[in-house]
Amino acid sequence: MRKVLVVVVVVLLSVASLALVNEGYESPVVNVVQAAGPAVVKIDVEATRKYSITDPFGFEDFFRRFFGEIPDQKVSGVGSGFIFSKDGYIFTNEHVVSGAKKITVSMLDGNSYPAKYIGGDAELDIAVIKIDPDGIDLPTVELGKSDSLRIGEWAIAIGNPFGLKHTVTLGVISAVGRQLPKPDGNGVYSNLIQTDAAINPGNSGGPLLNIHGQVIGINTAIISPDVGTSLGFAIPIDVAMRFVDSIIETGSVQRAYLGVYMDTVTEAISRSLGLKVESGALITDVVPGSAAEKAGVKPQDVIIGFENLEITNSSELRAAVLNYPAGSEVKITIDRFGERIVLTAVLGSLSQESESSSPDDTEESKTFESSLGVSVSEITPEDRERLGLPSEFRGVIVRKVDSEGIVYRLGISKDDVITRLSINGNQEPIENVNDFKAHVEKIKKGDYVAFFVYRSGVRFVASFQF
């Protein structure tokens, strides 16, 4: 009995001693969550989309014949955001709220508000929505700075992963300046913050905070679990703040314009041109009067750096330029056959360049909306720089596809370039909007039609019977 008593006493003393370790300590993360948490919101989105089915046996036509149009499919999604203004303005991701028919914002205190989409940008994946405070003193977050982040700093993510409201995860800044290919393969996300703080679906649009409770980024992307884990990415808050005023005032961003035609340096290109670098964005031509020409950029220069970012290909350069509004002064590092030169450029405005490129065009010739459910326009200098289209490339660019039209079911989408059109085997080149309009208006009921389409270096044919 005495032995049992001794064992019990020893166990009790051990537990008591463990309880004294770090007594009274409180993690600074607790204070961050208390300060910033109330301004982090859950965003529920309702939208509609067309049913997309594989229909090799013509069931879709059968359904339409006897039952009418296939009904829209209602879809819902969840994301995160944070209030940064007492007026009720909220930052989130464009992919969270794009195309939403209804947006509902839920607060930590249990209150819910209908939200209005103010504007955003798909390339940057930032958006602003707004709720009406209606006299309520809304909580807000403090915005920090992201341009001086150091690897190893604490990083705290708050959001709604898988709809689990107000989840907090902790990690560090594991890298900065990351260039990440977009899921659809169309371009890259530029200058992202990488963190090992757990970010999952539903965290998108939520804040990434430093240990002082300041927002340093907007959580936006994750690595597929099939590829890796503990890798999340956030848009630097400095990038978002460069465009927030434009989004609130106009609903969109004013894109910057460098004024170059470019290609990616490959081994073959490097050897054939005698370049002294194995990667970078090769300048194939410079637009007269552009920001690039004024800065001193020349054909066959290779841009290897843009501000603090390393540039290894043309997609990274295009994405880096889009991180800045028109009028920004930026440093560009070039390699000119082995000589490293740093140039200063004041970025122009894409809208101004587009207007000045075709002053004689009428408004009708610039954009044409056809009965097939597709709107096209001329290829502008903006498009050539953004999509990497050479100056001699001809066609019309798709601006919008109507979900109710024929073209929607062909897989043609915004920014595709239509270069040729065939009607019953008679092929015609498409060099401008007038060509496209003239040929489309010839299409009659029962005709077999094919569009020859260019997308991100790939050409394909989309065909249908009218």
TrEMBL record:
Q: Does the keyword Transmembrane helix apply?
A: no
Q: Which InterPro entries does this chain map to?
A: Chloro_Bact_Ser_Proteases, PDZ, PDZ_sf, Pept_S1C_Do, Peptidase_S1_PA, Peptidase_S1_PA_chymotrypsin, Peptidase_S1C
Q: Specify one Pfam family.
A: PDZ_2
Which residues take part in binding substrate? 46, 95, 125, 202-204
Please name the GO terms of the biological process aspect recorded for this protein, alphabetically: proteolysis
An annotated Gene Ontology molecular function: serine-type endopeptidase activity
For this UniProt record, give its keywords in alphabetical order, as a comma-separated list: Hydrolase, Protease, Repeat, Serine protease, Signal
| SMART domains, sorted | PDZ (SM00228)
| Disordered: annotated segments | 352-372
Annotated catalytic residues: 95 (charge relay system), 125 (charge relay system), 204 (charge relay system)
The UniProt record lists the PDZ domain at 259-338
Q: Which family does it belong to?
A: Belongs to the peptidase S1C family.
Name of the protein described by the UniProt record: Serine protease
> Which organism is the protein's source?
Mesotoga infera
